[in-house]
Structures
1.
Amino acid sequence: MRIIKPIKPQNIETNVASEYELWAPEEAIPAGQYRRALDRNGIERVYYAKANNTNKNPVDNVAIWSEVKPTVSYAMFDGYVDTLTQNEELIHVKFLVSKASYLCLFGLEAEDVQIITRKDGVIIGNDALSLLIKGERDSPLAFCFGENEFRRTLIHPIPGLYKSVELEIFIKTSPGYTAKCGFCTPGWAIPIGITEWGFNVSIDDYSGNYVNDFGENAFERRPWSKPMDLDIIIPTLPDGREADRVYRQLTDLRSTPLVIDANNESTDRELLITLGYYAKVAMSSVYVGETRLSLEIKGII
């Protein structure tokens, strides 16, 4: 298995139009208006004017502006899965990234993804990936009347290891449908061990369920997250340094959002992929050649 530490993309370009006007310093903006501006992390966000103002940057003037949400064009880069970038048929983004080994996509609603990697303008990787889940329509009844099922999570290696590459991503669906992506991040993968002893995956559901004034059950669907408990084997022959490395790196990644990919080399199951942080780490050793690691992962919405 591996954990992937997200790396902030730079110089983001997108074909998805924003739903709000861009903030301009020379504009006299009345209270009650919305404007968009880049925050300190390079994410375009929507801000609400609480008072009349001119030349008051929304990022720096919290007494005058309130942050509302990311724009729809940048929502896939804000660190959360439940805020969606969406566009008719195609989401097309480009950005620069440094020293990344994987690209991670969460909250997908699409049929195909194409990832093009360029180094100094030269294409070094061009991968067209179908999200169709094979085997979901094997029965005659499902084949005739069922809907196709598609992956919602994708982790894909980035070729080479360079100081800077450009990633160009096409997230595509059929005409008449909307392509969606909840979270997109490149990252640096750190191998942890082998998930051989088992796992527990669950759903933390933040939906509402209450009884209204007429005695009827009312439901409000809200975001959810995927917590995970993992048992991992770390081979430690001949001197135990591999367990030392894993412990040291986990120590450095405390309180850090991570992509957890509990698949081994022979598997590629969405069930074993989540966005989260670890809440508990425990190591034990029954003999010198093997260390057992238990990870408790809390999911991020």
2.
Amino acid sequence: MTAYSSLDTWVEREMPPIDVLMVWHAYTLNPTWYAEDTTRILILRSLRAIKDRLLTSIVKVGDISTYEPSPERRDSWLKQYGTPFDPIAAAAVMAERIVVCPSCVAEYAAPFVTQDGTGYLQSKFISKCPSCGFAATKESLAVLKYARDVTLDPRNTDDVKRYGYGVYMAGTLRTITQPTADSVAALLKAKLHIVFKPPEGAASKDEWAKAITTKVGYSMENFQKQQAAVFANGMQRSKRVMSAYIDDRPFSVELVGAVIRQCSFIDKMTGFGWTESGAFDGPEDEVVLQHAIARYHAFLDLMSSSPGSFFVPTLDIDLAWHTHQMKAELYQNDCIQLVKRFVDHDDRVEENHLATSFDITCRAWQQRFQVPYTHCGCPLPGDTLGQRLAPLKHRLSLSSSAPAALMPPRRADALGATHASEHNMVSLAPLGEDHAAVAGQKRRVREEKVQRRRQRDEKLVRDGKMDAAAVRPAYDGHQIAFLYPVPFYAPPVIGCVASASGCGGFGGTGPTGGGGAGSAVVSLRSLAPQTVSIDY
């Protein structure tokens, strides 16, 4: 794709099919990976060049479900990529993928789908190389991808000329304050070259890569064990790097799952009526978006006031946040300018920790802005864990009164949108324990806690100490808050410390998978750090 000066021309000549837009959308909602991949990976740099074309083109065409490309666009797509423009028609003709054998590095075609479930797009993928007979799996393909990246050398001018920032490993180029920390990434690569030295007499990088894959037995777990010394002081970064290598595709995000995880959020937006054409055309409707943007501003302010805290967004905040992320370059610049670090979110966190973090977010919001965080009817946390916020109290306090804009309009959709954003949850259980039993027990404990809060609120209503409208009955179908939220994590500002035992203190988070939909274009240019500035 290329960046034409005219948006109309770009939409006419370059806009991809809707399935590609869905994947692209999910990709941008993993902002750290998207930013690094479009810098590091050659074939993805065109995405960086076209900046916010995804968002602006969707706004331009309006209802994307009824968009029809011109015959010329259909023909050009077919000619350039060899598949029909229509996703369903394309799926019917796409039968196989070219893979590289992890053992002999010969290319061959692997079927996408087989009757026994071993196709490339299926969960039990396994494919025998016709040249050497090696049975390739997604893991062994990932091992080869990792090994090939290891062989690229930042000190080799030919490698740098050919691959640019691609000479560095995924997950090592960016820090929370530096978009291209190449000195950090180069140090880590040098350490990897000590562990995985090229074999004597190796005439090519493929021979070196094959030696590495053989050494680790085509196992990512063995890779992690053998390079443990490289990440001795930064195991979180080790996990992040390894998470980018799950198969042979170039992306550092598992985009199939990232797309699927959008369904829950989009269902919520559809339930509010916010995905309908013209939903925000009237002034009385637009105020709902203005409120969402105001709360997103405040959410960033909350994060900037407490850099090491783990905060969780609500649905309306998520809508504005996701829209901002779709303006990828602007989002990066705004984060650095306003928050002094790059803001990412991590959806691989144990679910009980997420629930606790949402309670902490509610308390922090109340402390800083003197208004409740949610207005959807879910019972808010009380003061039983207030001591957890004691270290934050001074930083969270604002001298001025809370902006009125943080109180939602008194309409069902605006109130409902302050419910916790519940998609993109990855449930984790301690090793050696039954996953379902552990997760189920923790959910029951949380449900009991919510019921106690409901009973507390009902008593306050009876005593005349709480507005009855603020208490939603448990039987009206409104689900308990924060079963499957999108976590928000702003790690402390730390740099990379080079030491004899490795490179530590990278900061950052685990693999991300954000999601969402909407067109509330957010501009934070006028928002100073630790200041909420809303103009209606």
